[in-house]
Design a protein that fits this description.
The chain is of the alpha/beta class and 352 residues long. The protein has a single domain, classed as Alpha-Beta Barrel (TIM Barrel), CATH 3.20.20. 53% of the residues lie in helices and 14% in strands. Strand 5, helix 11 and strand 6 form a beta-alpha-beta unit. Helix 2 runs antiparallel to helix 16. The radius of gyration is 19 Å and the shape is globular. Bound molecules: 6-chloro-9H-purine (ES4) and zinc ion.
Amino acid sequence: MSPTPSNATSPSAAVTQKFTRAPKAELHVHIEGTLEPELIFALAQRNGVTLPYASVEALRDAYAFTDLQSFLDIYYAGASVLQTAEDFHDVTAAYVERARADGVVHAEIFFDPQTHTVRGISLDTMLAGMERALAQAEQRDGFSSRLILSFLRHLSEDDALETYQAALPLFDRYPHRLTGVGLDSSELGHPPSKFARVFALARERGLKLVAHAGEEGPPAYIHEALDILQVHRIDHGVRSTEDPALITRLARDQIALTVCPLSNTKLKVFGDMREHTLKQMLDAGVAVTVNSDDPAYFGGYVNANYAAVAQALNLNDDELYRIIRNGFEASFIDETQRATLIARLDAHWQVA
Ligand code: ES4
Ligand code: ZN
């Protein structure tokens, strides 16, 4: 049987079927960024919060971003509906369901505690809700996960240190789940070096370390995240192509980048997906992964991110396999689980 003309002219069509169902890891997703407008309205009503938007449609219409800050302003406003452990449970359970539909079998999920503690919500409340959803997903569906506590870089390091100290009992209570710290929010003007002390404490404690760097910020911020914070992965890192020595370093040391293609085009890091640096980095041997960042705001979960970048950059079957595999290689899981998940991917890839 010959393929239809549309298949013949679309090299990514055959590949599409295969990767949509492939088991994957998602290593860069903010739980607050998975709040769909419908859930924002439902939680606002449940909690008696008045939103400055008349309807779900009006809120969605406001999702026209010009840069990172224009997004963050709306993202923090949306996150204000999260108040009770039940709310944190519900947003987490909804994310897991949606991610599972895209083949995600392991997720490492950021949360921004300072966004909530400033409103009087305790770390206990956040963790209790998220843990209940993630433990259930693990038991019922075999969905494995980690949580990464992310510091807001537009706030002071003292604020981050206070947050870190307050979280110490939670690292003890949820050692299987809460396994790392990260750094996010407004990048320009807030270099990684600003958070040297809090990352040193987390490192001494043996936590996994990641930082957003080279999203809007320069390659120098990526060097700082590696040299000063000593992170294990870089979130975004898409501007690393501006520094050939950095690309060589990332490839040599196999520092994974958690790339989020739809985020980068929605926030105008790239004017068009065809300008995305993912393939250049992949060709140079950098361990790039594909992730959704804030899928409720950027127009797609993990498969939509793969599809968009695969089509724009003409990624072939082998390249997609490598990116998916990189996700498991870069996951903060033990070697037994890593081998199991890669074997599942290989079994799928060979027969699909
Ligand atoms: C974020 Cl896209 C992005 N960049 C930096 N910080 C963030 N927090 C949530 N999404
Ligand atoms: Zn992010």
